[in-house]
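Pipeline run #58 for the internal structure catalog. This entry was flagged by the ingest filter as a single-chain record with no existing model, so it goes straight to prediction. Upstream metadata was stripped on purpose; only the residue string is passed forward. Reviewer on rotation: M.T. Logging verbosity set to normal.
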Amino acid sequence: MKIRLIFISSVVIPTLLLMGCNKEESTTPSQKEAKQQASEAERDLNSITIRPELARPIIIGKPSMIDLADKIQVPSRVEVDEERLVRIGSYVTGRIIDMFVILGDHVKTGDRLARITSPELTQAQLAFLRASSRVVLTQKAADRAHHLLAADVIPIAEVERRNSELEIARAESGAAKDQLSLLGVDDNAMKELASKGRILPSIDIQSTRDGTIINRNVVIGQVVQPADPLFQVADLSSVWVAGDVPEQIVRNVHLGQHVEIQVPAMGEIAFDGVIIFVADTVNPLTRTVRVRTIVENLERKLKPDMLASMHITETPQQTLVVPETAVVRESNRDYVFLAKGNNHFRRISVELDAEVAGYRPVLSGLTIEKDIVTDGAFHLDNERKLAELE
């Protein structure tokens, strides 16, 4: 039984081998070559040949060399233009007895902000009255001395003494007047004080420029001193936008340069800024340089402390680029299609930099003489994927 099985096997196996050999010999060389090409095409998933009607939306061109300047985005903040900012306080130590403005009010030069009463003010007015009265008395004494000298009643030395007293009295009166001016008493009030002798019980703290009240640190009943900052008035028709530029790109920044300012709170609106300050030192902790721009703000859209972005354009450089429409992305890699002719294309991997003005700078993987698909790469890649699924 076992010998028979072995014999049968030895007869069947050579027969099968002979049949296989006869089948292989029946395949022609052209069929072998076609099968080999088909096998290679199956392995090369990056190549595709499309029908002529599908090639119409595809545009073929070459990479190009252009002067490309990147825009550097610098986090910034809107600030008050300190050239248009004043801090207003009291000239005397006293108590606030009335308030005329609140935060956000618009004021003009000379407008009343608050009213203050002060013993120091009273003493200064009394000193002015005494000095004014002394001027009147010494003036009369000097005039009388001149008449007596003409009548040869008194010596000339007496006349000179009285003239000296008059000059001293005038100097004291001028100093007392200046003191009242420093305390905020205007000329009309001093004239009324000198003519009627009426002591002012209080004076007004006034704005020294047109602008908006952006800070108020005082309430009624508060005792204040000259060193206390009571109000801040700012003209917000122009503002500063300041940011810290990395030291590696500060060479692209210079005074008078126009930059684009964008404020997230304003949406897509862009503002034109002019660089007015570039710091001469580098912050050793952040390795940045302080840069300040001035921006027109006639409509008061920009508010102090708003977050902003300063877009600084780098120096243009000749760069090999491809259009953004030439690039397809898959698995975090960038690809472009080479045009091989006869509607045959091959996808290759390239290394590209970030998009700038609709172009992608080429870092590696492509040279300027190559023919590539400059527009329609996405459409072509879809056709390639469909062919891959078939």
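catalog note: The CA atoms of residues 17 and 23 lie 10 Å apart.
catalog note: Residues 119-201 form one domain.
status: ready for reviewer M.T.
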